Amino acid sequence: MPMYVKFQTPKEIQDLAYDLVEKARDNGKISKGANEVTKQVERGQAKLVVMAEDITPEEILAHMPVLCEEKNTPYAYVPSKDELGSAAGLKVSTAAVAITNPGKDKVGIETLIKKIEPLKIKKQQ
């Protein structure tokens, strides 16, 4: 498990995260790539951050979970940077995506956040 992964994400949550990125891409607004996502989190505009677990070097995302926790921004992990890039509408892979405007699916993000919170608490114990 990479150093920046703070908790194991179940398949159900991974699939929901990919789906939310696709919906936000079509109906809302997303930022793609570690640098853009970092900016959105720092500005307090990110509603949800989705990070890929297969990033090399790991240092690219090492700061992201800590930054998200400082800014109270929910975050989730997905296994594939290629799938994440595809969900974001890119022809290339991406390390991270921030949903800044969920568009029509605000309920989906709230549902995902509620499923992530217990995972973070369990990991801290």
Write the layout of secondary structure elements.
Blueprint: H1 11-27, E1 29-32, H2 34-42, E2 48-52, H3 64-70, E3 75-78, H4 81-87, E4 96-101, H5 106-124
Parallel strand pairs: 2-3
Antiparallel strand pairs: 1-4, 2-4
> Total domains, how many?
1
* SS elements, strand count: 4
Shape: globular
Spatial order of strands in the largest sheet: 1-4-2-3
Taking all Cα atoms into account, the compactness measure Rg is 13 Å
Based on the coordinates given, report the CATH architecture.
2-Layer Sandwich
Beta-strand residue percentage:
15-25%
Helix content: 40-55%
Give the CATH topology.
60s Ribosomal Protein L30, Chain: A
Order of H and E elements: HEHEHEHEH
Low-pLDDT residue intervals, each spanning 5 or more residues: none
Give the integer mean of the pLDDT values: 90
Assign the CATH class: Alpha Beta
The total of helices stands at 5
CATH superfamily: Ribosomal protein L30/S12
Structural class: alpha+beta
Q: What's the end-to-end separation, in Å?
A: 18 Å
Largest sheet entry = 4 strands, mixed
Write up what this structure looks like.
The protein is α+β, with helices and mostly antiparallel strands and 125 residues long. The protein has a single domain, classed as Ribosomal protein L30/S12 (60s Ribosomal Protein L30, Chain: A, 2-Layer Sandwich), CATH 3.30.1330. It has helices at residues 11-27, 34-42, 64-70, 81-87, 106-124; strands at residues 29-32, 48-52, 75-78, 96-101. Helix 3 links the parallel strand 2 and strand 3 (75-78). Helix 1 (11-27) runs antiparallel to helix 5 (106-124). The radius of gyration is 13 Å and the shape is globular. The model has no long low-confidence stretch (mean pLDDT 90).
